[in-house]
Amino acid sequence: MASTANRFSLSLPSVGSSTLKPKAFPGFFLKFENSNPLSLRVNRVAVSVSNGGVMRSARICASAPVIDQSVSEASPRAPTIVDVDLGDRSYPIYIGSGLLDRPELLQRHVHGKRVLVVTNSTVAPLYLDKVVDALTRGNPNVSVESVILPDGEKYKNMETLMKVFDKAIESRLDRRSTFVALGGGVIGDMCGFAAAAFLRGVNFIQIPTTVMAQVDSSVGGKTGINHTLGKNLIGAFYQPQCVLIDTDTLNTLPDRELASGLAEVIKYGLIRDAEFFEWQEKHMPGLLARDPSALAYAIKRSCENKAEVVSLDEKESGLRATLNLGHTFGHAIETGFGYGQWLHGEAVAAGTVMAVDMSYRLGWIDDSIVRRVHSILQQVKLPTAPPQTMTVEMFKSVMAVDKKVADGLLRLILLKGPLGSCVFTGDYDRKALDDTLHAFCKS
């Protein structure tokens, strides 16, 4: 059974915003927005095709830009916009350079007159003042508070979360307040969870500053904190008003953080976008060298992939779970080895290799995919095996409380079929899992 969404998106200057659904073209819509230059983009997306339990996706894109000669070269370039389609909770992802210098983008999504920016001790000196300026420039009625949390995965817990609530309550914020997450995935997850819980829900905005957050964690509304027994076990699905990705923030990102984020980019190609994976194989040197055009494309394509999945399966009943390739093994590494010892993407990279190894042992993929996965992860200098201190029993004990366990059965995301196809299943030979664990760990 296939679910297909077809989209024509037409951007015109100074038209206002409206959506037309012509009867002659069921499943299509025309969207008019204020933006320059004039452009026409046609997308046809076919997703979630189930064939013998294999989840596939196909994407056909055509782009035909028409340049508006009246637009000055000095004019700010319109951001790329990827829409997350969730009905009345839909929101845009803005992607581009210099977006923090475009106050209108943030201000249109602020509700009320009070804003709380949640950030950390690393990001605050770099971008907090710029964000406060973007929120208040030409907008004197808005007042901004901020709370600066310690930096690191080990602080993604209830104690640190309470610091956000403390600041919000001390500042007497109300239900029309807006929370703004400024930072990486840890900040985005905690700020979103705080927004979901404070006064039973206030608006929030994501401003991700790492590749990891820009291509994955800021999109889709997963929020939460860790527990000592497992990662991300406490949280809520809560969507932002918008995601603003200023690619200039990657200029200050350490190389290790850049590589960590690329693990999630690689994931999209493996599970649903073979063409994107092949592009990565050719352009990984440019991504590692921070080529602006390569990074912008990788972020855009990743966000498109995630937005499509989230639009179809917001609460992770099936299809969305496939975005967690390597995460069950990876979360076990993070929990067992200690939060913050490895970056999330490093743990996911090793977990991906383990998932691929298990897929091969089951006879679901050929060895060429195994080799290509090893090759691209080694090129990024990401781990291809768990830490030596991890044991089989450590993996099993943590995986037993994974969020994907249902009725005592551990379900895994595994590759099956050609590149770009995967399954989310509990129907696998348990011996293959044991063999993989023993191949990578001490007994």
TrEMBL record:
GO molecular function, one term: 3-dehydroquinate synthase activity
Record EC number: 4.2.3.4
GO cellular component: chloroplast
Any one of the GO BP annotations: chorismate biosynthetic process
Pathway connected to this protein: Metabolic intermediate biosynthesis; chorismate biosynthesis; chorismate from D-erythrose 4-phosphate and phosphoenolpyruvate: step 2/7
Domain 3-dehydroquinate synthase N-terminal: 147-259
Cofactor needs: a divalent metal cation; NAD(+)
InterPro entries the UniProt entry points to: Dehydroquinate_synthase, DHQ_synth_AroB, DHQS/DOIS_N, DHQS_C
Domain of life: Eukaryota
3-dehydroquinate synthase C-terminal domain mapped to chain residues: 261-405
Localisation per UniProt entry: Plastid, Chloroplast
Catalytic function, reaction form: 7-phospho-2-dehydro-3-deoxy-D-arabino-heptonate = 3-dehydroquinate + phosphate
Keywords carried by this UniProt record: Amino-acid biosynthesis, Aromatic amino acid biosynthesis, Lyase, Metal-binding, NAD
SUPFAM superfamilies: Dehydroquinate synthase-like (SSF56796)
HAMAP family to which the protein is assigned, alphabetical: DHQ_synthase (MF_00110)
Family the UniProt entry places it in: Belongs to the sugar phosphate cyclases superfamily. Dehydroquinate synthase family.
Function: Catalyzes the second step in the shikimate pathway.
Name of this chain's protein: 3-dehydroquinate synthase, chloroplastic
Organism in which the protein naturally occurs: Erythroxylum novogranatense
